[in-house]
Amino acid sequence: MTTPTANFMTVGNNSPAKTFLDSNFRYTLFPIFYGLVFPLGLIANCYALYVLHHMRECKAMNEIRIYMTNLTVADLLFVAALPFWIDYYKNKGDWKSPEPLCAITGSLFFINTYCSILFLAVISINRYWAVTRPLVAASSDCWKRGAIISALIWVITLAASITYLTNTGIQKDNNISRCFEGYQNEEESKINTVAATHFIIIALFFLVFLMVIVCNILIARALLKQPISQPRGSTGKRPGGTKRRALRMLCTVIGVFVICFLPHHVVQGPWVLSVLHMRKEWKNTTHQRLNDAHQITLMLMGLNCLLDPLVYCFATTMFRKYIQNHFTKELP
């Protein structure tokens, strides 16, 4: 979530003087990082959307294609907001764009993060269902189920992001307009509510992450029980190759969680306690380190729009084969 940084210093007789504590390295690192993610993410996800559109006639993968398409749209929304964040960090954390855009870009960051988490989770469940209950999965109304689940995910994330959209998100700090920063100015009466909201989100993330881990362990167990050396089936596919691709897919999904989302949600709890000044015994160096770590985890979350297309390649053979055939035709 785009609520990067605030901290507290003590002066005089240990009375807290709440001031904004910055991590200055982000003003150099973030514009470079987002400057690379923006074109790469735009190209990768537009191409993924193009491939998914041309695979719409394949009924066998209707459900997972719906999830992939929605995940790609969520990634493109995040990518669309990156130029504003690049400008924000180039201006040393001073929001120069129209104030309503702060609320919109903050919402897009939140929506992308939790849509990605939930769609990756349902992709894992879908693959578990396909591996362990292939006949039941094939006989059910996949398209309708995919559409309903996708709609629910969007409703949940959009409802959760309303708090971002209902205010500008701008906090003034010595004539500097901070976008979704400045928790040090939170009213005392709201501190517990703000902290509880963050910890509920953290708990829900770990619940989803546990579900993804369990699904992928069960997929791996089911696949490993199948013998690798089998003759080609009637479709010409070698079961061993299918198993290896499936194992790569589940490793990729878990990798996206571990690299992009897990660090943020591990750091988020202590960081919230720090910025809300709920741990007065912590030293200023502890606050600074937590803030620096929080900035790094925000950056890592931006990688997910580049890693998600890898999930598509390993999740379905048809997606990968379409790309291979497309480039084979294009090359002389």
UniProtKB/TrEMBL annotation:
GO terms for biological process: chemotaxis. One of its GO terms (cellular component) is plasma membrane. The keyword Cell membrane applies. Residues 44-312 form the G-protein coupled receptors family 1 profile domain. It is found in: Cell membrane. It is a multi-pass membrane protein. GO terms for molecular function: G protein-coupled purinergic nucleotide receptor activity; platelet activating factor receptor activity. Keywords: Cell membrane, Chemotaxis, Disulfide bond, G-protein coupled receptor, Glycoprotein, Membrane, Receptor, Transducer, Transmembrane, Transmembrane helix. Pfam families: 7tm_1 (PF00001). InterPro entries: GPCR_Rhodpsn, GPCR_Rhodpsn_7TM, PAF_rcpt. The chain crosses the membrane at residues 32-52, 64-86, 106-125, 146-165, 199-224, 245-266, 296-319. Interacts with ARRB1. Belongs to the G-protein coupled receptor 1 family. This is Platelet-activating factor receptor.
